[in-house]
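Now for a specimen:

…
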Amino acid sequence: IKTIALVGAGGAGKTTLAHQYGRQDESNVIWEINAETRESLNGSFNSLAQALVKTEEDKKLWKRLQEIQDPIEIGYKVINFVKAKLKLNTNWVLIYDNVENMADIQKYFPLDFNTWGEGKVIITTRDHNIQSNKYVNSTIYIGELDQDQKFTLFKKIMNEGNINFFNS
């Protein structure tokens, strides 16, 4: 699974760039996973699983999952549900936002094409050492934008490339 890391200071636009890539790639599923804490990871995966519920069978399975009392068991089952649904959706993009340490997201991270299916992963992080991780194929360093660059990027995103729509 192709994995790229966007590395830079907070507020440099890493997450915005990741979302923009997903939209331009016309991915079937684009999902941002908040990777700051274990709780935010679990919450993001629960939200993704809910968004992937499409059929009546999915709804019944999701309802049974919600009845599980053990948080460890439900976490495991939700991850497996997401894996199975993503495997059926080719061309997905998962954005792991604000990754501090790859070890913290290991069990939530798509490593195997046979289990997760065809997709791409974008990691946003401030950690320059992520380039050493064997699961990261490429690293792009993002510098901070000045005010004019921020405004131009904003206009392009909001108007799908038409930068003349807004005036000062």
User: Anything to note?
Assistant: The radius of gyration is 17 Å. The chain has a mean pLDDT of 88.
